[in-house]
Design brief:
mainly beta, ten-stranded mixed β-sheet, 220 residues, Alpha-Beta Plaits
Amino acid sequence: MRGFCLEVTGEFACFTRPEMKVERVSYDVITPAAARAIFTAILWKPALRWNVKKIEVLNPIKWISVRRNEVGAVASVRTDGIFIEDERQQRAGLLLREVKYRLYAEFEFIPPEQRAFNKHEPGADETPDKYTAMFDRRAMNGQCFHQPYLGCREFPASFRLIRKPANETKQPLMVSKELGWMFYDFDYSDEKNPRPMFFNAKMVDGVIRVPNADSDEVKR
């Protein structure tokens, strides 16, 4: 399967650590789940499952501390709405700023009987080559189903398709660092009870290798 590469940039980002219950504190770099969400924003189909393979950190890791107003309630059809002044909460956040990554991913072509949605027999044109061309076209033209974001929806991501990463002049950050246990993604094998997965992330010369979901390196 051919891989894809996106260059992703943003003014701010927050890939929230799940152990921080109140304040939003970001991981040092983008998580595999957040990277996968960017590819999915460009092209999502029941026949595809995106797998992030590698993350290259291009800009130095910079932090900014902010305070933000958040709403501490969820709107519901059973209520008359939310009065913001009663539900406003001020929270501190430790965010990343001026981020830039190169994200590498592949997609799996899922047989109809294994799909959670749209389990029809595939048409003659439903092939991996079709979806490869579709992703290339959409990414090249800046098309997406919804605006990709960097951890939180208020931090939009800009993206650029890179056809030949070896020709790029911008090199990964020449920094190696143990990033510790990082959120990988959710395991949806039990759709009613998805389980979080984690892996021990390491950045070597600005590159993070992402293991396969079924690898022993990924813990549930």
